[in-house]
Amino acid sequence: MDSVRRTYTMMRGRHIEKRVPSKELLSVLDKAETAVTGTGKDIGNPSWKRSLPHVFVASLTSLLFGYHLGVVNETLESISIDLGFSGNTIAEGLVVSTCLGGAFIGSLFSGLVADGVGRRRAFQLSALPMIIGASVSATTESLEGMLLGRFFVGIGMGIGPSVTALYVTEVSPAYVRGTYGSSTQIATCLGLLASLFAGIPAKDNFGWWRICFWISTVPAVVLAVFMELCAESPQWLFKRGRAAEAEVVFEKLLGGAYVKAAMAELVKSDRGDDADSAKLSELLFGRSFRVVFIGSTLFALQQLSGINAVFYFSSTVFKKAGVPSASANICVGVCNLLGSTVAVVLMDKLGRKVLLIGSFAGMAVSLGLQALAHTSYSSTFGTLFLSVGGMLLFVLSFATGAGPVPSILLSEICPGRLRATALAVCLAVHWVINFFVGLLFLRMLEQLGSVLLNAIFGFFCVVAVIFVQKNVIETKGKSLQEIEISLLSATSQ
């Protein structure tokens, strides 16, 4: 262990002074790696119970994300009447979508925040604008105040998802990393359902919508406070030259028997890396371009499948079928939760690639059913069954793979030094396309009709299946360092 500690000291010196000769360093690294080969793996997997509390606290960010996505769903009518813009569809649309603009801004800076102050502080910084924004929204007496509050909330929403994906990936044992990653999607579903249930009394109770915003401040405060008790990312500590602290964190997360192997993996992955912060040019033109291309394309295809159009406008379909909007939203939320639960169970058994292919294929089939519902080949009962059933199948299929997998996969395949920046870039793509799909959906529905529009969304789902088959590597059960080596090997071929 002493030789390994000396290696960490040398690595730390390289981070700070960059004067260690490369040949000498690699020689020492090889000796350290040989000294710990097999440590940890020979005695089985570390206990998942050690890292679970830290993942649970981090998942509060996903809970808040889901809650704020749905908080104006049932309350928008009451808000518009109370604040004096009832009937103004542009103002109502701004209340819904202003948070998307804030999320785009937040996602752009999420990488800088996560790398600059650490993952724990980044969580707290994402909670702060959500607390401020929800408080402003809950107390405002004007449309401008509501939009300002929603924008602040959006900034927190933009920072949160990328930091959550980073943190869960870096503190989880490899054999449960996919399960933990998809559990954050369950937290998002629970937050969405909570907002829908909380908003039900808003139609009959004047001013209830303000309570709905105040409710969201509670988990945000809990996140900010309890994150003080959580472990910092050992990868981030190591990259900052704080190897001794990273060792202590690994002992807390994995147990003492696994510390040497985990630290040796970090030493191995750090070979030849420049310790400077990641540059955007490296992601766009360097050897990591393929990673960013895969991540950005997955997020783009995720949104071009039309999933958020379904979440935003599902009530319209159900109303035509004679189903109350509250029941419709709850049905969609339950299917989303059910699909996310399936993803948790299967993520580390079937793997990321299989779930992605199956998910996008199921979405393509369900969109075909919805397109068929609006043709002359369908009876009245058939139209009801195909449109409603197809929509629920679409949401269920999405939640099993296309929803949770892209962020998990991207956080796994990115090299450690570039991980935060790459996630920020890819999530920015996500928010831009999300915004335009939501903005243009109703206009395209009017001009193109349901059949053609569903066919377009289905086409992108088929493209996604082909893209995943050709470009995505399987990462289940592999250490982050093994994944990085596999991807570099694939890139060099």
What features would you highlight for this structure?
mainly alpha; single chain; disordered N terminus
Give your account of this protein's structure.
79% of the residues lie in helices and 0% in strands. It has 22 helices and no strands. Helix 6 (89-117) packs parallel to helix 8 (143-171) and helix 18 crosses helix 21. The two termini are 37 Å apart.
Order of helices and strands: HHHHHHHHHHHHHHHHHHHHHH
Count of helical stretches: 22
Gap between N and C termini: 37 Å
**Helix fraction bin:** over 70%
Q: If you compute it from the alpha carbons, what radius of gyration comes out, rounded to the nearest whole angstrom?
A: 23 Å
Strand proportion, as a percent range, falls in: under 5%
| Uncertain segments | 1-5, 7-41, 272-276
Biggest β-sheet: count, sense, barrel? none
| Strand runs, count | 0
Write the layout of secondary structure elements.
Elements: H1 2-16, H2 22-36, H3 52-58, H4 60-70, H5 76-83, H6 89-117, H7 119-139, H8 143-171, H9 177-199, H10 208-226, H11 234-239, H12 243-254, H13 259-269, H14 280-285, H15 289-304, H16 307-320, H17 325-350, H18 352-373, H19 380-402, H20 405-413, H21 419-471, H22 480-492
Helix pairs in contact: 1-2, 2-13, 4-8, 4-9, 4-10, 6-7, 6-8, 6-21, 7-8, 7-10, 8-9, 8-20, 8-21, 9-17, 12-13, 15-20, 15-21, 16-17, 16-19, 17-18, 17-19, 18-19, 18-21, 20-21
